[in-house]
Write a structure and sequence with these properties.
Helices cover 40% and strands 14% of the residues. It is of the alpha+beta class and 353 residues long. The chain has a 6-stranded antiparallel sheet with strand order 1-2-3-4-6-5, sandwiched between helices. A 3-stranded antiparallel sheet has the order 7-9-10, with helices on one face. Strands 8-11 form a two-stranded antiparallel ribbon.
Length: 353
């Protein structure tokens, strides 16, 4: 994992000594003497992620943010359980060290995992590759998503994560309600978009394990081979659901070189590089590898963009109501406006066909 860390922000501090004592007492962790140096990862806008740097060993601690949280979100026990269960059947999850449900230890629940050595592509790829190898890496990343969607959830002990058929309907209703609750005066109502999604929702094409936040900046490129993916991170939103909905969520983050300036302004991953597939090429490649094919991709594309707008707005809501002082959240209302306009254009184009 590339060391994109900084000093811990004041509002995100915790009792390092208490966390260290808990690790030694409850996890049987063979830790070097002394408390760890703690750094905070700069990326991410949901759960807080820290580097615990001991002498000769590095661990990762994850905990929820402060402030109002969406119901069911930021469940550290669930995130820990999913990765623990996946480890024998999906070799891209970090090794879990332990989960603490006792909020009196550091003020919230948390879990700790081993750090995966390698590079996490953020705004830039982080490694120097020619276009043909960028294309190879792009295909590898999509192949791993296909592989995840083929995991036997019953054999992994994760069949109870989902509610079965009706995932598409539940997602449209759920994100509609979450957006309405998080809306502030300075962002669009999204009512026409939400109504269109509800009218045009298809039946589930399949039911499988989905990551729900699968993108380049949630994968780790191996330290010894940047064309190999060593790990997949951030399992907070993983569940049992429709694989095309998962792909649609991923494509909402996929900013390509020929997108308009407003969309390119909010790019957070290196999908614009020469050699990267376009969104349309990714969808075609995924469908070829998975054997799935949508009746209309527009629905999944609009869903992904609307869902992203709701996620961003939930984060901005905390800043707007002074539940966090993180300056990175100050202008998140702007991409919400941009995403609404993008959804509206896609819907209009679809209606003209």
């Amino acid at each position: 994992m590339s060391d994109s860390t900084r000093a811990v922000r004041e509002e995100d501090t915790f009792d390092v000594g208490a966390a260290d004592r808990w690790l030694r007492e409850h996890c049987g962790a063979d830790l070097p003497a002394g408390e760890p140096e703690v750094r905070q990862f700069a990326g991410g806008s949901s759960n807080l992620t820290y580097l615990l740097r001991y002498d000769g060993r590095e661990l990762i601690l994850r905990r929820p943010p402060s402030g109002t949280k969406a119901r069911g979100a930021h469940d550290m026990g669930r995130e820990h359980r999913i990765q623990s269960a996946l480890a024998p059947v999906f070799p891209y999850v970090p090794a879990m060290v332990g989960y603490c449900s006792d909020e009196s230890v550091i003020g919230s629940e948390f879990y700790v995992m081993e750090r995966i050595a390698g590079t996490v592509p953020h705004h830039d790829l982080g490694v120097d590759l020619p276009p043909e190898q960028v294309g190879q890496l792009c295909r590898t990343v999509i192949d791993i998503l296909v592989e995840l969607h083929q995991v036997d959830v019953a054999a992994a002990g994760l069949a109870d994560l989902g509610k079965g058929a009706g995932y598409v309907e539940r997602q449209i209703g759920g994100w509609t309600n979450r957006y309405r609750k998080a809306r502030t005066w300075n962002v669009p109502r999204f009512e026409k978009v939400m109504a269109w999604l509800d009218r045009n929702r298809p039946e589930d094409v399949a039911t499988c394990l989905i990551h729900n936040d699968y993108r380049f900046d949630n994968v780790v490129l191996a330290a010894d081979d940047p064309l190999r993916v060593a790990g997949v991170l951030d399992w907070e939103l993983a569940t049992i659901g429709d694989p095309l909905m998962d792909l649609g969520s991923s494509m909402a983050y996929w900013v390509q070189a020929d997108d308009d300036w407003a969309f390119r302004r909010f790019r957070r991953q290196p999908t614009h590089l020469p050699g990267m597939m376009t969104r349309a090429e990714v969808v075609d490649y995924y469908c070829e590898r998975s054997g799935l094919k949508p009746d209309s991709w527009t629905f999944y594309e609009v869903y992904g963009l609307f869902r992203l707008a709701a996620i961003v707005q939930q984060i901005y809501y905390r800043y707007h109501h002074k539940q966090t002082r993180n300056p990175a959240f100050k202008n998140l209302w702007l991409p919400v406006i941009m995403l609404e306009r993008r959804c509206t254009r896609l819907i209009a184009r679809s209606n003209r066909r």
